[in-house]
Write a structure and sequence with these properties.
With about 250 residues, this protein is an all-alpha fold. It has eleven helices and no strands.
Amino acid sequence: MNTKFVVCCLFFFIVPPADCDANPFSLDKTANLFSSFMSIFSRTFRQSARIWSRDSSNFTVPTGVEEEVENISESCLTFEEHKKLANDTKNDADQLDRVLDFNKDLLRAATEIIGFTELRAVLGFSPPGPWTNSDEITYVVPANATIEEYYNAREPRHKNGILRYSLEDKQVTSAVKFLDKRFPVVRVAYKKSYKHNWNGKKKIDRKIVDDMLDLYDAVYDSIDLRTDYLTSRYKTEECKPKKDSKTKKSKT
């Protein structure tokens, strides 16, 4: 029997497709949703198991960072800004939804790279390599591995599971520059959180690496929650270009 069909049927009874009346058995769509769900579940379970298997961390997101990050959700991006970010020039009826879906993945990837770049810098490790769409994590690391090799094996790429879009390194790099210019608080939040918890005076061991990765998770989740608002269809359609302050004064 076709494996995709079996997976689709299983998921259909758990979560019926939103458009079931029009298309009750969209095999590719439903199977892909199920695959993404299982990927997120698997990664979350293994991350939790890693935390439960050791002493809890004392590392916390410092006071004030959460409030600074909250400013992201109070902002918005116009459709034109979204099109520029996605580099999407195909004007058709599906462009808005397509661009917002793509930018959701793109902003997550950029947020991830910024967080890992700052974390590696604080720990004294080499910066992240070119973007890869692989989300492999090594959960069993040899005892004789160096501390940086241990970190490389445990770095949780694609925390949200399998990305829907295959991104290129140049696209992610461009998105990182966009966030640094439009929302510098993203990088600042990571920097403040890392430096608040780690002064670099102690020798780095595996527990410190794990604790810092847990801290990365906490900061990433907070930022991702806010940047996700930026890709809301309603928020984008309601967003108006910022008016020049001189123009405002001239009208008063």
